[in-house]
Amino acid sequence: MADTKILLSEKEIPRQWYNIMADMPQLPGPPLHPATKKPVGPDDLSAIFPMALIEQEMSAERWITIPDEVLDIYALWRPTPLYRAKRLEAVLKTPAHIYYKYEGVSPAGSHKPNTAVPQAYYNKKAGITRIATETGAGQWGSSMALAGKMFGLEVAVYMVRVSYDQKPYRKIAMETWGATVNPSPSSLTNSGRKALEADPDSPGSLGLAISEAVEDAATHSDTNYALGSVLNHVLLHQTVIGQEAKKQLAIAGEYPDIVIGCCGGGSNFGGISFPFLFDEARGKKVRALAVEPASCPTLSKGEFRYDFGDTAGLTPLMMMYTLGHDFMPPGIHAGGLRYHGDSPLVSQLCRDGLIEAKAYRQLACFEAAVIFARSEGIIPAPETSHAIRAAIDEALICKEEGKEKCILFNLSGHGYLDLAAYSDYLGGKLSDYEYPEEMIRKSLSRLPVI
Q1: Burial code of 420-440, b = ≥16 C-beta within 10 A, e = fewer?
Q2: Span 200-237, pLDDT tens digits
Q3: C-alpha distance across the termini of the chain, in Å
Q4: pTM score of the predicted model
Q5: Which one of 3.10.180.10, 3.40.50.1100, 3.50.50.60, 3.40.50.2300 gives the CATH number of domain 68-109+238-444?
Q6: Structure letter (DSSP) for residue 310
Q7: At what angle do helices 419-426 and 362-376 cross, to 10 degrees?
């Protein structure tokens, strides 16, 4: 009988992060200064980031060593298990072999501590005493709160208002780890006050919460900014996921035909897929599929051009697929995927046809999440339900074609603090929302011209 879960020992935690920039046929355009529109240098970023992270952001080295202090904390939950979804396969009656990498075993319940811990470590080493950050669904904020506590850093979190209201237990988790949590838009920053003046009932957005956190960091000498997705160094840190998965699949005697991850900013998709794209650059064939919500279809319907990473225009301009930095997404429950842009690395790979992108509506994703929960037992985060939907659909195609393929997806977090979303779904209160084309065009019309 094939093993249900494949485990690695702590000695097998990856010792290096994989930097995909060393293997990309074409790199993204450089980030540009928001005022001068010229490429930013290390000095431009040093006001809000420690130099070690700036170096990683710009590095072309293929492998970057993970510090021992970070590995010691990784060992609290890494390596994470790889599961063969045999019960889901039976329900679907598919010849496909479905595997999922379960990142929900981390203390914060998601993949986000993989980058929160090194970011806290490098900031502490640089003499920083306080971190300002944003969060959508709360997974990143709780991860940064956890990592900050482990290194003795104060953490201030700006949480998107709609998630602040929808997910009170995320807020409690952050506060339990010692963080201060502010609903965004808030009255604490110029960016927040301006947004509240325009709309006192604003649901907020990740772009706006980023503006508030960046402004906080830039106006406090003891504070740096930390971002949970999008940036190169964040995706770099997440590659421990895919590296472990490769070892585990090798133990099972398998290699994936398709690797799937949900995609908002790109960290969870990059974490699972980049180590397999390393193989593809050396002649191995693999499909990589980034799955996003139809209500925030960045890769599917956005434009590939320079845009700000935040609503107020405080961050550098990045070359990426974007819906426009003032795009205000609807209050879907997959809060971690409500971002107007995408990682420049993921965007460039998509532009070059090296990865695929697909958008799903909310109800189809929750349907998949319930099928998964009732077969595999784990209630997934709403974000992860997008990857599950795609994995199920790929498995059903295998069934129709009578083909035995290997499907790997990243179960990036559990949904036990998202049960209100499941209550709404099971009670018939959720509805589908596909962002209107005319609204996307309107937002894109206000993009900066470079």
Answers
A1: ebbeebeeeebeebebeeeeb
A2: 999 998 889 989 999 999 999 999 999 999 999 999 99
A3: 58
A4: 0.95
A5: 3.40.50.1100
A6: S
A7: 110
